[in-house]
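Tutorial, part two.
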Amino acid sequence: MRSPTDTELLHELEPVAEANVNRHLGIATEWMPHDYVPWSLGRDFDTVPWEPGQSSLSKAAQIAFEVNLLTEDNLPSYHRVIAERFSQDGAWGTWVHRWTAEEGRHAIAMRDYLMVTRAVDPVALERDRMYQMNRAFNRPGITPLQSMAYVSFQELATRVSHRNTGRFCAEPVAEKLLARVAADENLHMIFYRNLVAAALEIAPSRTVEAIRDEILGFQMPGTGIRDFGRKAIQIARAGIYNLRIHHDDVITPILRQWRFFDLTGLDAAGEQAREEVATFLAGLDATATQQQAKFEQTQARLARRAETLTAV
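Running the prediction step on this input gives:
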């Protein structure tokens, strides 16, 4: 049987997209960014300049919060990519614009929180925002199926990152704000996850190949942030987002929801793609264990050093 073209596939999936847009609109909760910001803490920067130590957040929490915000800031690029891959007409267009509007709200509230609580250097943050947005975000050649697979994982990864950052902040307002943002991201993930589930019924082998491509080549959209590698290590070491979390809390539950390893009727290419995913996950699991052991060894070494200094 001939595999549908991208255009044909999007057309066949449109009723599913429409049903899921309506589902989303029916359960999404309206919320106002200004309700999640402690405005009474605000001070003018021209009279009280920013200085390190003005925030109650730990350094790791500040870094994670800032990385999450800078990731959200690239929204214009994300909008362009999904509008080009899907459509701005019909149910697809309704979703693209609704998703963009909801994501924009996240950056508004998060930036206001960071400014009011002085949790980040405002000059450095703005320079990093300019740097990040000038680099933009692009996935030339990515297919609609790959896009749906990617955002299924990415939205859940973002949800987990926001939720864990909020908990790590150990500050009630920050935790409430990031829990609210994470709830949006979860609904976004469900939309895309359901579309991929429908695509697995229409074009199973081709969809499995797309899932394989995005799992093996997965990168968070914030990868282009200045000094991202160093910041990602600090975030991983703090337990906010690391390989273990990526394996256990992002990839595995979505694959389980799709019954990925129980799918039948795949052609040779689809079966090969699924085997590649299984092999990759086994390697990721092993690497995650090694990473966690390394972090624990470093933590133990730092604790011993602190004890020695205290004794002196």
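The mean pLDDT is 93. In part three we will examine how such features are distributed along the chain.
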